[in-house]
Amino acid sequence: MLRLRAEAALRRTGNNFLLPGICFFRYLCAQRMQKKLILDSDLLDITLDRLCQQLIETHVDFRETVILGLQPRGIFLAELIHKKLERSIKSPIPFGHLDVTFHRDDFRRREIPARASETRIEFTIEGKKVVLIDDVLFTGRTVRAALDAMIAFGRPAKVELLVLVDRKRTRDLPIAPDYVGKYVDTVASQRVLVELEAQGHKHNKIWLINKAME
Predict the structure, then answer these.
(1) pLDDT by residue (tens digit) across 158-184?
(2) pTM of the model
(3) What is the average pLDDT value for the chain, to the nearest integer?
(4) Could you say which of 28, 43, 46, 82 is the most buried, measured as most Cβ atoms within 10 Å of its Cβ?
(5) What is the largest CA-CA distance in the chain?
(6) 23 and 46 in one domain?
(7) CA atoms within 13 A on the CB side of 84
(8) What distances in angstroms separate CA 39 from CA 43, 90, 152, 194, one per listed residue?
């Protein structure tokens, strides 16, 4: 498929005679450059430490605070942060997974029904401070759905949002995070890929990818 794309692109420029060699190599290089590393493993670890310190400054001992990771991808980030926080304050913090599938405003619009993930909240959030954690903030619709979904477990005193990546200028709803790992300027033809060791990847990395590569 990639070879066919290269040939089509080069024919448009009249470079047919170079197809077998250098031009195809240059095309491959150009495609690879469209995958940009945003955070490597070391910088990501520093970013997570900073986010944890910000949470501790706000919530201190977390006696009135609970943490909810948003399914499906936000739970891996939430688990990392949860473990770091418990090691720092040396005290358990209520932690759960929240699925928002049936609360999404596009749930009935999809040709293929979305597959629901597990919601695992073994405590009440009534009167508690809730920290929602997701990997990437894009349109804000997932967070809006989360606000609806959590009401089944009580009425929180306050809700905060932590995201690893905030895709600027892509919001459909007036939703802003309280804690951000990194702001990234993106367009509709790009996506942010978060790779974590907890998901089975070799290293923790964050990439900015053009959809044309997929």
Answers:
(1) 999 999 999 988 889 999 999 999 999
(2) 0.80
(3) 86
(4) 82
(5) 71
(6) no
(7) 18
(8) 6, 28, 36, 9
